[in-house]
Amino acid sequence: MGKASVPAGEAYTIELRRRYDAQIDDVWDAVTSPERLRRWLKPITGDLRPGGTFEFDGGEHGEILRCEPPRLLKVSWLYGPDGDAWPGTSEVEVRLAPGPNGDTEFELIHAAVVEEPLFPTYGPGAGGVGWDLALLTLARLLAGGETAGHEAVEKSPEAREFIRRSAAAWGEAHLAAGGDPEHVAAAVEATTTFYAPDPA
C-alpha cells in the first residue's frame, strides 16, 4: 500500500495507492471540492485553479501546479509561513484512473526535499502515516460514511493500532528502499510516538 524511495539527488518520495469503489468523477470531486476536502483532510481556502494558491487550516499551503480533471492534480506543499515549519520543499501529485468495474484507481505521490531533522528522525512515516490516516477517512467519505477530518480519526481508540501498523509498514518500505535497519527502527518508534503519544 505504501512505497518509499531513497534520495534521487536530494528528494525523498512516498507513494500510496488505493482502489475506491466509486466513479472517477466522484473521487475527483472529493479531492478538489472545498466542501468535501474539509470532511476528509482539512478546511481549505484560496484561489483553487491552476496557478492559484491554497491554504489548509493547519498551515499547509502551496500553489496549484497542474490540474487535469478528472485524472491529475499536482500542487506544491509547504508547511507554516514560508514553509519554515517543515524546512525544504515538497510536491504532492494525485493521479486517478477509472477501474474496470466503475471503481477508481488512486495514486498519491509526495516528493520532498527536506532538511534535518525531519527525514533522519522520522523516515518516510513522517508523511506516510499522515496520508494513510487521511486516505482512511477519504475511503469512509466515498463509502457514504460520516467523517470529521482525519485529525478526529487520529484520536479514536482504534487509531493507535492503525498508526502503529502504518508506521511499521513505512519502516518496511524504508528497509526495502535501502534504509539502515538501526535507523529504520528508531524512525518507526519516533513516528509512532509522534502520531500516537502514550495517553498516560
Description:
- This protein is an alpha+beta fold.
- It has helices spanning 24-32, 34-40, 118-122, 125-142, 150-154, 157-176, 181-195; strands at residues 2-8, 11-20, 44-46, 53-56, 61-68, 72-76, 88-98, 104-114.
- It has a single domain, classed as START domain (Alpha-D-Glucose-1,6-Bisphosphate, Chain A, domain 4), CATH 3.30.530.
- The chain contains seven helices and eight strands; from the N terminus they run ββααββββββααααα.
- An eight-stranded antiparallel sheet has the order 1-2-8-7-6-5-4-3.
- α4 (125-142) packs across α6 (157-176) and α4 packs across α7.
- The chain is globular, with a radius of gyration of 16 Å.
- The mean pLDDT is 87.
What keyword list fits this structure?
200 residues, alpha+beta, Alpha-D-Glucose-1,6-Bisphosphate, Chain A, domain 4, eight-stranded antiparallel β-sheet, globular, START-like_dom_sf, ASHA1/2-like_C, SRPBCC domain-containing protein
